[in-house]
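Quick question about two entries, pasted in order.
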Amino acid sequence: MLPPIRCFSCGKPLGHLWEEFNERVNKGEDPKKVLDDLGLERYCCRRTLLSAVVVFPVIAKFKKV
């Protein structure tokens, strides 16, 4: 799955927040603090970013038939 472009529930654009969110969380920062800093207040948007799993690099390793 690619990073989410919009919230699945309310439709708010989230694509521009994905890279910063992912970088900061991977560095060990608390996801709650990162989401608060990014200005995400709605729980649906927070859920969308928290639950996103990017598997594209894994899929790209397989050859096309």
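Here is the second entry:
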Amino acid sequence: MEKAKKFEDKLKELEDMVITLESGEVGLEESINVITKASSLIKEMEKELLDTEDKLKILDINNNTIKDISKDFE
């Protein structure tokens, strides 16, 4: 079973993909593969950010405010 990557590792991987594409040294087929993988990685990272945001904030509907509970996760 593959260990889950840290968000920072995913970001570095995405940055490396951009460098690869910007280099112009890969052909069309490989570029399409890199873009497809990058798109999937971006969606995964976006979900992770949204999940984290949900963990850090609770909407108090009665007071119409958002309570920051980030200290609860330290």
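Reply: The longest strand covers residues 57-60. The mean pLDDT is 84. Hope that helps.
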